[in-house]
Write a structure and sequence with these properties.
Layout: E1 4-7, E2 20-23, H1 28-37, E3 41-48, E4 53-59, E5 65-71
Parallel strand pairs: 2-5
Antiparallel strand pairs: 1-2, 3-4, 4-5
């Protein structure tokens, strides 16, 4: 598996700003299910966004919000 990280300074399309984006490719659905199994707070549900990404936001134990994302071309 491969993931890439991107620091985020703002996201005008997001319900809340995340501090980091984690690009997980085709594993985004699996990551969403795992976050739910672990009881993490989902801040933004798994969503297919109109610009071609599938993503969800989760609150990390330290309170930071993380954007977990897959691009449609992956």
């Amino acid at each position: 598996r491969r993931a890439s990280l991107q620091l985020v300074t703002g996201d005008a399309s997001a319900p809340q700003d995340s501090v980091i984006s984690v690009h997980v490719g085709a594993d985004v659905d699996e990551a969403y299910a795992e976050a739910g199994r672990r009881g993490y707070e989902i801040v933004h549900p798994l969503t297919d966004e109109p610009w071609g990404v599938r993503r969800f936001f989760v609150r990390a134990p330290d309170g930071n919000i993380i954007n977990i994302v897959s691009h449609s071309d992956e």
